[in-house]
Design a protein that fits this description.
By secondary structure, this protein is an alpha+beta fold. The chain has 2 helices and 7 strands, in the order ββββββαβα. It has a 4-stranded antiparallel β-sheet with strand order 3-2-1-7, covered by helices on one side. It is globular and about 45 Å long.
């Protein structure tokens, strides 16, 4: 299970459908720098009082604090590159906009 410090949802528009991914970031400390990961694609979202559990195509789980949906330095550069390289296919969406599609 991955537990990032901050995260956002990316919508990736393919030819005949769209899919959603978590772009997650961790703030580094003195000995290690910031890091980021992107999941393989959201298949389900489980909601608790403080967290969203994003279940991925690969089976991995990203446990993301509800208040952590924000772009910080640890993912800002990656996000900028994705939006510049794929302006017609990648966009940022709010988790509230996709909850009903992925929750049971």
């Amino acid at each position: 299970m991955y537990q990032p410090d901050n995260w956002i949802i990316l919508k990736v528009a393919a030819e005949d459908e769209s899919y959603y991914k978590v772009l997650a970031g961790w703030s580094g400390g003195y000995l290690d720098g910031d890091s980021w990961r992107m999941n393989s694609g959201i298949t389900e979202i489980e909601v608790s009082n403080n967290y969203y559990d994003f279940i991925s195509d690969s089976g991995s789980i990203y446990r993301c604090a509800i208040k952590g949906e924000i772009v910080r330095m640890n993912i800002a550069e990656v996000l900028t590159e994705l939006l510049e390289q794929f302006p017609d296919t990648v966009s940022v969406v709010n988790v509230d906009d996709i909850l009903s599609e992925f929750t049971k």
